[in-house]
Give the backbone structure.
Amino acid sequence: MLIYGFLAMIFVLFFANTIISYLSNEIFLESTVTCFKIMSISLLLLALTSSKGTLTLVAYSCDKSFTKGIIYSFLFYFMLILILYYFNYINLITLAFAIVFSIVVELLSHVYQINKNNISRKI
């Protein structure tokens, strides 16, 4: 799964201009391609989160730990959006970065919960 996420990220990074030019008009090309490239990082992070966090925590019956990671990710994203809104700095690029950072928080939370519950030694 991790290999597919990595390959998808590389594909999107290299062919973002072509993909966006087929899906939209030229007016949105520059900002959309930048956002698309930022969001391509989330493909790899989601593959890591899924394979190393979600599947592991659920397989070892750590549902509460899994839920904590999701809640921490949501709270981080929500607070980041509120801060961006307060400073009037919400745009497509900052929203893409907020999504990527919330996925990083979820991944770190899952890794912490795996180490806390000594699941890494069982794998």
Remarks:
- Residues 2-116 form one domain.
- The mean pLDDT is 85.
